[in-house]
Amino acid sequence: MHIGTAAPTTEELTAAKHHFIHHKSIKEEYNVGAFEKEAIQCLTILFKSNDIVIMVGGSGLYVDAVNKGLDDFPVVEKGIRESLNIDLETKGLEYLQNKLKELDKVSYQSMAIDNPHRVIRALEICIGSGKPYSSFLNKDKNKRSFKTITLGLTADREIIYDRINKRVDIMMKQGLLKEVKTLLPYKDLNALNTVGYRELFNYLDGTWELDFAVSEIKKNSRRFAKRQLTWFKRNENTFWFDYTKPIDTIINKLNEATKS
């Protein structure tokens, strides 16, 4: 899954020590809770020999899990998720979205409802606990033993979207379709219900034409980028820099922030 996940290149991996790159099998069950636990364990070790560790992230939920800790949700019956996954397959995402709107309007209006994993997770809590998923959010969380300094890069939306479109074209030229073909036996796994894979699965099963599938990858990637921007903009403590800003300027701000 090197192409579809846009993993760092061999040169990039050699230039700096990376963690959590292709360290899990798609067959393993993995979630944000497991990531939080493993990331904190890793940071505990790294901080013994490093004053600063850099986390580069796309998913705001996973970033916040490390920086702030996770909300504490009740344990619910496993069969609820299995039933919701069947509903997703047989009735579609819109059915689940409407169900969430009925049970927890707050979550419906605030979360990424285009993401089936998030919708199913919220519904699972609603059904299993009898309470809205949103009622468990923003309670007391684990305190962190480290300070977080958040840096963000910005660009005009037209530039971001143009780069996304070009990036998808590059990935197709690199062999994304061939990569997806090798994953066909596993297409029903949660790990592959993601942008770049599910669209090409629809092409391979004859549902879509290839050009349309590629256009959908671009569209869904742009939507994901928009949600990312919305999520990260909520952090008022972020230091934002235009992507053309000289790196020295950003490093100076980082050094300044570590001393304050």
TrEMBL record:
<dbReference type="GO" id="GO:0052381">
    <property type="term" value="F:tRNA dimethylallyltransferase activity"/>
</dbReference>
<keyword id="KW-0819">tRNA processing</keyword>
<dbReference type="Pfam" id="PF01715">
    <property type="entry name" value="IPPT"/>
</dbReference>
<comment type="similarity">
    <text>Belongs to the IPP transferase family.</text>
</comment>
<comment type="function">
    <text>Catalyzes the transfer of a dimethylallyl group onto the adenine at position 37 in tRNAs that read codons beginning with uridine, leading to the formation of N6-(dimethylallyl)adenosine (i(6)A).</text>
</comment>
<dbReference type="GO" id="GO:0006400">
    <property type="term" value="P:tRNA modification"/>
</dbReference>
<dbReference type="InterPro" id="IPR027417">
    <property type="entry name" value="P-loop_NTPase"/>
</dbReference>
<keyword id="KW-0460">Magnesium</keyword>
<dbReference type="InterPro" id="IPR039657">
    <property type="entry name" value="Dimethylallyltransferase"/>
</dbReference>
<dbReference type="InterPro" id="IPR018022">
    <property type="entry name" value="IPT"/>
</dbReference>
<dbReference type="GO" id="GO:0005524">
    <property type="term" value="F:ATP binding"/>
</dbReference>
<protein>
    <recommendedName>
        <fullName>tRNA dimethylallyltransferase</fullName>
        <ecNumber>2.5.1.75</ecNumber>
    </recommendedName>
</protein>
<keyword id="KW-0067">ATP-binding</keyword>
<keyword id="KW-0547">Nucleotide-binding</keyword>
<keyword id="KW-0808">Transferase</keyword>
